[in-house]
Amino acid sequence: MRKLIFITAAAGAMLITGSAFAAEAQAATLDQVVATAREYGYSEDEIQTALNKYETDMAADPYAYDEYDMDTIIDQIKMNGKRVVDTVPYNPDVTIPGLATTAAPDTATTAADQPTETTAAAGSDSPAGTSTSAAGNTQGGSNNGGGQSNGGGSQSDPAAEVSDDITLTMPDGSTFTRISAERFIALSYEDKLLYLGTFTPEQQAVFIENLTPAERRSMMKQLPTDKKAEVVDGMKDIAGNFGLNLSVDEMTDDSLVIAMKDENGKLVSVSRAGDVIEDTGYDRRGILAFAAGLLTLGLTGIVAVSKKYFGRCADE
Amino acid sequence: MKSLGRYLVSLFLSVVMVFVSIAAIAALVLTVNVTSSKLCKMSDDSNLPEVVIGEIGKYYKNKYNTTGIPAEVYTSAITKEDISAEIERNIVSGFYSMEKESSESSQFSLPELENSISDFFDNYAAENGFSDTEKLEARKQSEIKSAYKVISNQCDVFRFNSLKEHGVLGKLSKVYPYRRVGVVSLLCASLLIMVIFLAVNHKEKPAMLYWTGISEIIAGIFTAVPAAVFLSSGKLSAFTIKQPQIFTAYTSEIHAIAMAFLAAGLAVLVVGIAFIILYKIFSTRDESVAPTKPLPIN
Amino acid sequence: MSDKKKKSSGSIALHIITPCIVAVICCGIAVAALIKPYDKLKVYLNLAFMDELKTDPDSSSGLVITESEITEEHTGETYETGKVIYPTFGEMYAIIKSEKLGTDIPVYWGSKAELLEKGACQANSSSVIGNEGNSVISAHVDTFFADLSSLEVGDVLTINTNYGSFTYTVRELIEFSDTDKKYVTQKTDNRLTLYTCKRDVLGNANQRAGVICDLTESRFYTAGEEAEK
């Protein structure tokens, strides 16, 4: 009997410990949620809005969120990320109009042949977050006034491409190169998918995993409207975890504007896929046309009066 | 074509005279109505000092939870006269700024308020056995300084300090000192145009009265009608300003200015009609002397 | 007699039509001429009632505009690195001051047409003032950024917030099309980008003009974690 009790207690203890260990391994933190959100292209403002809501809710109720909520949110973010971009059929010999190249990208090299290079870090837009490349070119780098011409130009000189390209490392240690983030962003949606298709499925997975937030945002912005709607539904679920309501202010093939409101209907953020140039001039054409119309009417009156009254007198 | 030429020149001058008249009306109304004495009188007539004391009380009641100082410490030590004087000081200072002069008015001083705050802190320290006199004194001075700032801010009913800080008074000070010169210049310009009318229409002198008359009538309508529409539309009450003393100050002043524009516009309209009547009289007299030329306006 | 009557009626008609012609012409001129004074009046009124005096909840979009009183005279210690207080959407959280710009310019967090009526707007996808990166602020050329074109390289601007005061120096004058986003994207250096429409008679401009400024001095009112350590 004592032996049975001891075995039962030991098994129970092991079960509890095992569960606790498993829970500890799975449970995500808020910082992880934030990092994942950044990685998947959510803007700092969207993240901050959610954080503000989180802090407000936690201040009101310390048990408002737990680590399982964080897990759910991360899963939702990743799932939604797949709706934005996912692997496509492998098609290496395709012409991509935006790149004007027919050659497949550099074949993967084995670890023995190439010096080990770090995997492109997918994170913030800062240089530290990007992968290494031959010339250390970074996306989101400092503005050089003239701007860079991205992607649209033809690649007439392969040697010149090398300085732009990013090198990614596969799990087996081999590497492959892809075009720089700026050039990728500059491609149209269809060209982006075509370019992605020039890589093998395994390479595509690494490619997608290492997309920068800016690249993800550009893809999000360029999605066809029906796909955008799916992504927005996913975002609604994510925002719903924080008690935020999303509504779409504008959704076309080239733009996406989402309004975030709290439970009281207060507008807490307006999010746009991609940067926007504001309309900072008043359209005065209406008023000026009205003024011009009045002046024309006046001048017409003068002409009519001149002809009718002064013409008659002159004749007389 | 000579008569047409004179007609067109007179028409052009009439358009100019309309704008000169409107500008003269605006300059005169603003010069007469936007003065420190008028604003001070208006603030007294609207009982603004009482409203300000109420707002100060409200402010410190809200602050009580954070400062622990009852609102009565402040409100019991300030009188209507003190607040009226501070409102006046802010107004005068604002106008001095627009004149690009330094204000000669005395500094804001409320010895009773200082004593009240000081007594409160002393009593509090005595009740709680607080012995650090240096800290206590520093706290007292800080609170007194803050109180002056709050009260001065509440008394700045026309937001002159805010306008000064944000650079608006600086912009206005470029034109404000020349307002009287502007009025005189514009009135002289009107007279000059009348003389030019006379010169252009030398063959038919009464026509000057006609052209002047229609210019004044149009100027009067352009001034009076917008003022009347503004006053009757209730736009003033739609002004959403939280602080009631500022709301009252601005809406009263804007109401006064709108009324002045209406009155001035009507006066100019009447003057224009008078000119037309005179033209009719004089031109009829001319016709009776030389009946063969009824037309046109030359 | 009939000729005389005709002439008389013609005279009366002319006497009546003439003032109508004058009135119509004056109306046309007045409408065109009053556009600029109206814009200026809007600016001055917004500046006068800037500090927590007005609340204009726009119930249809849920936008709540908060107008805070910005600290302009901080007497305590200041730090080079510090804590930024992240603003809420629709909050007036900064004031731009510059001699060249004349009047102060309130800055609202978030871009919306209603906010552009009240002051300058900062794109909420850009960096909050004081944070690393590109802070992008725009305003109407007819109102708050009317004098932006007067800025020259080397001019100094100060931005006051409730968590610090930041000084920028104009580094570059820029012009770009409304489809060219290179100046409004996130950058790695600490810069301020101000832009507005390039002046056009009709007001409908596809071109934007502005300045890029470098951060030259940060004075935070609260120390950052590094300074605290």
Rg of chain C, rounded, reads 24 Å
CATH architecture of chain C: Beta Barrel
Structural class of chain A: mainly alpha
| Spans of at least 5 consecutive residues with low confidence of chain A | 20-24, 101-162
Fold-level CATH name of chain C: Sortase, Chain: A
Q: Which spans of chain C of ≥5 residues are poorly predicted at pLDDT below 50? A: none
**CATH top level label of chain C:** Mainly Beta
The overall number of domains of chain C is 1
Q: State the order of secondary-structure elements of chain C, H for helix, E for strand.
A: HHEEEHEEEEEEH
What's the arrangement of strands in the largest beta sheet of chain C?
A: 2-3-4-5-8-9-7-6
Overall residue-averaged pLDDT value of chain A: 75
Largest sheet, strands/sense/barrel of chain C: 8 strands, mixed, barrel
Strand pairing plus helix content of chain C: what structural class? alpha/beta
How many helix segments of chain C?
Answer: 4
In a few lines, what is going on in this structure?
The complex is a heterotrimer of chains A (about 325), B (about 300) and C (about 230). Chain A is mostly helical.
Give an overview of the whole structure.
The complex is a heterotrimer of chains A (316), B (298) and C (229). Chain A has 316 residues and is mainly α. Chain A is built from 11 helices and 5 strands; from the N terminus they run H-H-H-H-H-E-E-H-H-H-H-H-E-E-E-H. Chain A has helices spanning 2-26, 30-39, 44-60, 67-84, 158-162, 181-186, 189-197, 201-209, 213-222, 225-240, 285-315, and strands spanning 166-169, 175-178, 245-251, 256-261, 267-272. In chain A, strands 3-4-5 form a 3-stranded antiparallel beta sheet, with helices on one face. Residues 20-24 and 101-162 of chain A have low confidence and may be disordered. In chain B, helix 1 runs antiparallel to helix 10, helix 2 runs antiparallel to helix 5 and helix 10 runs antiparallel to helix 11 (207-233). The relative contact order of chain B is 0.14. Chain C has 229 residues and is α/β, with parallel strands linked by helices. Chain C contains 4 helices and 9 strands. Chain C has an 8-stranded mixed beta barrel. The longest helix of chain C is centred in the N-terminal third of the chain and has 32 residues, at 2-33. The model of chain C has no long low-confidence stretch (mean pLDDT 85). Chains in contact: A-B, A-C, B-C. Chain A binds chain B through residues 302, 305-306, 309-310, 313-314, and chain B through 1, 3-4, 7-8, 11, 295-296.
